[in-house]
Specification:
This protein has 257 residues and is an alpha/beta fold. It contains eight helices and seven strands. Helix content is 45%, strand content 13%. Strands 3-2-1-4-5-6-7 form a seven-stranded parallel β-sheet, with helices on both faces. The chain is globular, with a radius of gyration of 18 Å. The structure holds nicotinamide-adenine-dinucleotide (NAD). The site of nicotinamide-adenine-dinucleotide (NAD) has 29 residues, from helix 1, helix 4 and helix 6.
């Protein structure tokens, strides 16, 4: 059987930890040639060395701050040179500051916009000419259920607004990309167990257990693999008619509100 993403020249952001590391591995296992990046040098090095040792075609550039438009464009260009073009751009990286409206400082708001929304614009803009050239380019952006409704268990104004921005940006890229065969889809995860959420999930406050975890119909929190399996499908040619979707992956939690 031909690998689902055979030869797809793929850029993945934030592969130094969390879902990004799993994405780099699973995309490469599906046949993609992957160039990733991360802000953190150590995580980037670790992902590259581990995956290369497993025989996978993965290169990771560390110390790349995608919130800086010049650095974001430089990474995209370096990756495109290495791969000879770009077929898939998977914007996974983000970092944010949570807080209630009373606690959140303007600097926290700006930080979150920079590191959740601006960076997506920068990489999309830089990759656009290469995706046009590909003829069947794909952008995968990561939203969140927080962008779609109020979240009760933790105040997340800036995060929710930034992710809603990612969804709105994606919708409009769909329109612009149509003439060039570029498809753009969003995946909006619910609560997923990553190093980011592991401590919190290991000992969830009673209130979180009651209002979030007990209300996931599938009966468990998400795993990175739940998200990446969908991302691989959306990046593949099998999903050629899927464009402008916002795929919520939350075990059915948002159905219960
Ligand atoms: N974990 C969840 O429950 C959850 C839920 C909904 C949405 N998401 C989204 O899924 C994606 C992955 O989440 P995760 O939990 O794996 O996150 P994570 O924090 O574990 O990993 C994100 C990676 O992105 C990198 N990064 C952050 N800002 C960067 C920047 N400016 N430049 C370069 N690299 C940068 C980080 O260093 C990190 O390695 C994110 O977009 C997140 O918002 C996660």
């Amino acid at each position: 059987m031909t690998a689902r993403l055979a030869g797809k020249r793929t850029l993945i952001t934030g592969v130094g930890g969390g879902m990004g590391t799993v994405a780099a591995r699973m995309f490469a296992e599906a046949g993609a040639r992957v160039v990733g990046c991360d802000l953190h040098e150590e995580g980037a090095r670790h992902t590259e060395s581990t995956l290369r040792a497993a025989g996978l075609d993965v290169t990771v550039m560390g110390g790349v701050d995608l919130g800086d438009p010049t650095a974001a464009a430089a990474w995209v260009e370096a990756a495109a040179r290495l791969l000879g073009g770009i077929d898939v751009l998977y914007n996974n990286a983000s970092t944010q500051r949570f807080g209630s409206i009373e606690e959140l400082a303007t600097a926290d708001w700006d930080f979150t916009m920079r590191n959740e929304l601006d960076l997506v614009f920068y990489t999309c803009k830089a990759a656009w000419p290469h995706l046009k050239q590909s003829g069947s380019g794909v952008i995968l952006n990561v939203g969140s259920i927080a962008a779609l409704r109020g979240v009760e268990f933790m105040p997340q104004q800036a995060h929710a607004a930034a992710k809603a921005g990612v969804i709105a940006l994606s919708n409009n890229l769909v329109v612009e990309g149509a003439a060039y065969g570029i498809r753009v889809n969003v995946i909006s995860p619910g609560l997923i167990e990553t190093p980011n959420t592991r401590a919190f999930l290991a000992d969830p406050p009673e209130r979180v257990q009651r209002i979030v975890l007990d209300r996931i119909p599938v009966g468990r929190v998400g795993r990175p693999e739940d998200i990446i399996a969908a991302a691989i499908f959306l990046a593949s040619d099998e999903a050629g008619f899927i464009n402008g979707a916002n795929l919520v992956i939350d075990g059915g939690g948002s159905i219960l509100g």
